[in-house]
Design goal:
0% strand; 2 domains; 76% helix; single chain; coiled coil
Length: 102
């Protein structure tokens, strides 16, 4: 509407005359006591994105806690396995292999 009244292409108005665009939307807001539709859509989008970010942060934190628990469980199992291997009886027919020192 403003671009048509000024006989200016809409994109030219939005890119080159941001001050006029802002003034126009401010007038619309004040005179009609309403928020312009593009602003409503942007606010809705921002709200959705903020929720998405919050959900992703919570998921990342849960995954970090799970990684910590799994790493601890792995360490415990490895330690128990090593202890069992040390206590395992050696069979008479098993000859331990020697590691080469070269």
């Amino acid at each position: 509407m403003l671009a048509a009244e000024a006989d200016v292409h809409r994109m030219a108005l939005l890119k080159r005359h941001v001050d006029l665009k802002n003034e126009f939307y401010e007038r619309v807001r004040n005179e009609t006591r309403q928020v312009p539709e593009p602003e409503k859509r942007l606010r809705d989008t921002v709200t959705k994105l903020e929720k998405t970010i919050a959900n992703q942060k919570a998921e990342i934190e849960a995954l970090r806690r799970q990684v910590t628990r799994l790493a601890l469980a792995s360490a415990v199992l490895t330690h128990e396995s090593d202890r069992q291997a040390e206590r395992a009886p050696v069979s008479d027919n098993v000859v331990p292999s020697r590691r080469s020192t070269t």
